Every structure is written in structure tokens, then in C-alpha cells.
Amino acid sequence: MFKIIGGDGRPYGPVSADQIRQWIAEGRANAQTMAQLEGSVEWKPLGQYPEFASSATPPVMPPAPTAAPAPAFQPRPDVPNYLVPAILSTICCCLPLGIVAIVFAAQVNTKLQAGDIPGALEASRKARMWIWLAVVLGLLSFGLFSALWCLPLMHHHAFRMYRTW
Amino acid sequence: MVIRLKTILLGLAFGAVATAVFAFDPERVRIYPVCPFHQWTGLWCPGCGTTRALHQLLHGNLAAAFRFNALSMALLPVAGYLIVRGDASTLKPTWIWVLLVAIVAFGVLRNIPAYPFTLLAP
Asked: In chain B, what is the greatest distance between 2 CA atoms, to the nearest angstrom?
């Protein structure tokens, strides 16, 4: 098991060697990513561990000083769950649609915790869609209701004008 | 720069709304949009009474604010925490379910036309 320093400078793990190999394959970690074997006190770049030398070295073979910086290592990518707008749309615009948005917000967190990033992104997209639906339906309903409320007044007004004319 | 402009605009909008809610009592002036759910169904939604509650809160009447909408007053600090925290997607999913159940339960309870529950209606 290894601990690893992310692109944000914070430690992550302990994680298995297989997990790190997968991160290297995904470009989220590379030979320069600092790692610590669990139980030891020494931090070394991944490239110096024999376990990862083969998978981590190829992209960084030329040790040029102008080499691109290590890609940001993100064990938990930023997937917005739109919880606050979802609650606001439930309370302020459209109750039923807002509740669907909150359910999808909860799904974002569940899937993020399970490591299902594509699933979390999908739930995030759906949460945003339902919030917009709630807002649009709320505005439409408000407009329609105002129109219904105003129509009799307008009719009354027109009728009076006609009579006096 | 873009983020700063967005922040300024949001702050201005927030200030304008807060000023309006402070200056105009929703019980006397009909300038605020009315809840569509309440318009169509006649039932109280979980958020009904929030504008009146905020008006009372801005005038320092905490008890009156809670009488209009206890849930949204209780959720204000939660919303503040979530906004300061910034990333709500790392919350435990359980808390979101608790929040959802609280909102729905409050919405159901405040529509029961019997004594202890009528306290929850605005």
C-alpha cells in the first residue's frame, strides 16, 4: 500500500499498487508523483519504485527541464451536485420537480463515494436539468396565473369603456 | 476578473432583494411573486411564508420569523454552511436524504388542519 501526494499538494491513500497503476494509465499520476510506501518514512517519485518504473517512465523519459508539469492528480474530481439550487427550486418555484433534483443531488454524492465518476457526472447533469425545469415551470405557472387573474379585469375594463362610449 | 464581476453582480442582487424584503412588508404590499404551488393547489408548500419570515427576521423578530416558516429559518444556517464550505458534493449522501425527508415531512405536516400542526402553517 502507498500514500501519494496529489497535484493539489495533499496526501491521499493508502491505496494499492494496482490502483496507482490505473491512475498512471489514466494520466492522473506519473513518474514524478511523490509516493510513500506504507510503513516507510521516505517519499520518492513513483518512477523510482520498481513496481511502477515500467508503467510510469515512458512518458517522462526525456528529463528536460522544460517538461510539462505533472498533471493534477484528482482522486475526487469536482462534480457539482447543485444541492443549494435544488433546495431553493423546491422551496421557491416548483415543489415536485425540485424534489427530483434533490434526489439526483444525493445520487451524485453516493456515486462519487463509490468511485463511479461517469455515473456521478450523469446524475449531476440530471440534477441541473430538473432545476432548470422547475425554474421554467415555476415562471410559466406564475405568468399563466397572472394572466388568468388579469383577464377578467381587462374584460371588465373593456366592457365599461364600450358602455360609456 | 470574470469571477469578481459575477460576485459583485450577485452581491448587488442580494442587497437589492434584502433591501426590498426589509422595506416592504409582504403582508401589506403585493409586490412579491406568489408561490405557484400554493396558487394552483391552495396547499402550503414547504417554502410558503419564507418572504414574510425573512421580513420579520430582518426586523429582528426571530419568533415571528419562525412562526411564518420554521423550516426555512432552520435551513438558513445550513445554507450558509454549505455556501462557505463550497463543495456540497463531498457531503455524506445520508445528510441529503435527511434534508429531503425534513422538507417533505414539513410540507405534509403544515397542511394538517389540527392544532399542533397549524402552528407550522404561515
From this structure: 55
Which of B37, B71, B75, B78 best tests the A interface by mutation, with the highest count of A CBs <10 A?
B37
**Identity (one letter) of the amino acid at B91?**
L
What is the reported pLDDT for B25? Answer: 87
Is A83–B93 a contact, with Cβ atoms under 8 angstroms apart?
A: no
Architecture of domain A2-60: 2-Layer Sandwich (3.30)
A105:B50 CB<8 A: no
The verdict on pTM exceeding 0.80 is: no
CA atoms B21, B84, A93, B14: torsion sign = positive
Domain boundaries, chain A: 2-60, 83-164
ipTM for the complex shown: 0.80
Q: How confident is the model at residue A164 (pLDDT cuts 50, 70, 90)?
A: very low
